[in-house]
Amino acid sequence: MSTGVVQGEKYRNGQKRKDFFISFFIGVFALVWIFPILWTVWTSLRPYNDIISYGIFSWPRRFTIDNYLNAIQEMKIGVYLLNSLIVTVPSVILTLFFGSLVAFVVTRYKYKFNLGLLLLFTAGNMLPIVLTYIPVFWMFIWVGELFGNRNMLYNNYGGLILVHVGFQVGFATFVLSSYMKTIPKEISESATIDGANVFRHYWNVILPLLRPALAALSVLMTTWIYNEFFWALVLMSDDSKRPITSALRRLQGQYVTDFNLLAAGAIIAAAPTVIMFFVLRKQFIAGLTLGSTKG
Amino acid sequence: MKTAATVKKNRSRRSLSKTDRFTLATFVGIPTLLQIILLWIPAVVTIILSFTYWNGIRIEDIQWAGIQNYKNIFVNNPLFYQALKNNGIWLGFFVLVATPLGILLAYQIDRGIKGHAFYESIYYLPVVLSLAVIGIIWNFMLQPGGFVQGLMGLDIGNAISIYGNPKINTWVILGIASWRHIGYIMLLYLSGLKSVDPALKEAAAIDGATEWQIFRKIILPTMQPVNIIIVVITLIESLRAFDLVYIIYGSPTIFPLLNLLVFQNFAGQGISMKGAAYAVILLVLCIVPIITYLRINFKEDLK
């Protein structure tokens, strides 16, 4: 008995030393990990001329927020941020709404097509997106011409929103349906006995119970949709309508020599998702846990 | 007066009113239609187009090509084999290095080492950044006049091109990709680890098992379902990888990847539907991981 305790103590002491090294090691790597981001922030706060005359490693003579002001004035970062907002917010809301509708039906009502539908949505989420570029592009142009307005979907916020919803709704459905399976059947049964119709059953009974899952998913979806930039490159011909992450690519080419200005632009573009991550970290992690996966 | 029994009977007969059935149909119908029109029909159309020549302008101009597009890809096309090789290297590196690192990191953070909450945030931070931002951030590190070259004592005058050097660029790109991937895997795994019974670990520790033994003999086996899912995700991510390389190079010639070839071939020369054929090849490669993923997730339902 007592030898066991001694052994345990010896083990614990050894472990403590080991833990210290592990923690130290992971800590050093954490610094390496975050360094490129910090370096970009640092660069964004220094005047261009300072770096030109004294080099990148020079101790800063002064800090400035001019780069940020210039990013807003010259690069029109504010316009692009607004575009991102216009596209992201409705996309997230519609995705969650549609996802919750499908998840509601397949988990609360027993139909033969339920499993097939769920597979269709989940598999759709994992398809290589490039498989759809050509047809979606032509479909948008074609639909526009059919209605006599070439920019009805193509080069239009609405079209971009539609595409985001179409591609994200599979994941939302998958996550929300696995969450809804944990809501007891009895709740639905009593709602039906009380005479609630399908819409009330969804809106007044199930939807309020989904709140935690919706909160978690919305944080995750906002990050993904905000960060996505390929669709906008394909579907938005006007640069002035592109969201910030798509616009950055062009700005990078245009301001390639003005490190500091570009750094400020990149930081502004990164800020919304980073701030959201730190403020809503719990929701963020819960979202990933709920879905456990995203292709 | 309805008795409980008749109510139950009614319900079991699914006596939904007309309005209710209409509501249900709308609930399912609109999202499904959207999904089919934006995803499944285009996917099928791309498969069909991959067997044609088309400049992408008038539908009447579509010409049947048979398997010619595929022949052009497979025969005399070093770019394709380079892309295949690069995707393979990417996959190997992610499976053998980046993913295990993410898992180990998750394990250590889950044990509650000092500063674990802080580390968790830091390692996850790159994952919330857009690849457009990541491209710029790493450019500051690696470009001529950037941090790394400065450290190496190379000023702009005698700077080297890190991205252009075929000896190192593969590893540089994989490094940047891992910068994002490791944090992602870490957080996914961490959420799974929370469900492992801590008593198991304690018992093993008291029996004198080393940390490595606990990890191998207890954590890994209990986490089996999560392990498979993470490997599947890694496979799919490696096959689809290209945004980062697109951001860095803009064209597939220096570091070809399958996905990049699709994008270039459809954005650039539209005469053939080679891009569509590339997309189909990519789909074929993705099918096994996708089916594996679906089978794991719907194991009970599929029985």
Which features would summarize this protein structure in a list?
heterodimer, A: 295 residues, mainly alpha, flat, B: 303 residues, two-stranded antiparallel ribbon, 2 strands
How would you characterize the overall build of this protein?
- The complex is a heterodimer of chains A (295) and B (303).
- The longest helix of chain A has 43 residues, at 2-44.
- Chain A has helices spanning 2-44, 48-54, 66-73, 77-108, 114-126, 133-146, 157-180, 185-193, 198-209, 211-227, 230-235, 244-254, 259-279, 281-291.
- The mean pLDDT of chain A is 87.
- Helix content of chain A is 77%, strand content 0%.
- Chain B is mainly α and 303 residues long.
- Chain B contains 15 helices and 2 strands.
- Chain B has helices at 4-12, 18-49, 68-74, 78-110, 116-124, 131-142, 147-151, 169-193, 198-206, 211-222, 224-240, 243-249, 258-267, 274-297, 299-302; strands at residues 52-53, 63-64.
- Chain B has a two-stranded antiparallel sheet.
- In chain B, α4 (78-110) runs antiparallel to α5 (116-124), α4 packs antiparallel against α11 and α13 packs across α14 (274-297).
- The longest helix of chain B has 33 residues, at 78-110.
- Chain B is globular.
- The model of chain B is unreliable at 5-13 (pLDDT under 50).
- The chains are: A mainly alpha (295), B mainly alpha (303).
- The interface between A and B is large, with 101 and 100 residues.
Concise overview:
The complex is a heterodimer of chains A (about 300) and B (about 300). Chain A is mostly helical and about 300 residues long.
Task: Please render the helix and strand layout as text.
The complex is a heterodimer of chains A (295) and B (303).
Chain A: H1 2-44, H2 48-54, H3 66-73, H4 77-108, H5 114-126, H6 133-146, H7 157-180, H8 185-193, H9 198-209, H10 211-227, H11 230-235, H12 244-254, H13 259-279, H14 281-291
Chain B: H1 4-12, H2 18-49, E1 52-53, E2 63-64, H3 68-74, H4 78-110, H5 116-124, H6 131-142, H7 147-151, H8 169-193, H9 198-206, H10 211-222, H11 224-240, H12 243-249, H13 258-267, H14 274-297, H15 299-302
Antiparallel strand pairs in B: 1-2
Helix pairs in contact in B: 4-5, 4-8, 4-11, 6-12, 9-10, 11-14, 13-14
